[in-house]
Design a protein that fits this description.
Strand content: 35-45%
Largest sheet: 5 strands, mixed
Order of helices and strands: EEEEE
Oligomer: single chain
Radius of gyration: 12 Å
Number of strands: 5
Number of domains: 1
Helix content: under 10%
Length: about 60
């Protein structure tokens, strides 16, 4: 996460995380039932997919 306000949105039964890094506001959204993986976008045409071994546990 970068400069600016950071927001976190968590939905029930969700295993996908999308994080966008930049100079403005950054959003971390967890939602969808779209699988068990994370996508990180660094903003400079650099995208990584990280496959996790464990499920996300929602409190």
């Amino acid at each position: 996460m970068g400069a600016g306000n950071d927001t976190v949105k968590i939905e029930k039964n969700s295993y996908i995380t999308t994080m966008t890094l930049g100079d403005g506001n950054d959003d971390l959204r967890m939602g969808g039932q779209l699988g068990n993986y994370s996508t990180i976008d660094a903003g400079m045409a650099m995208t990584m997919c990280i496959f996790l071994d464990t499920r996300i546990t929602l409190l």
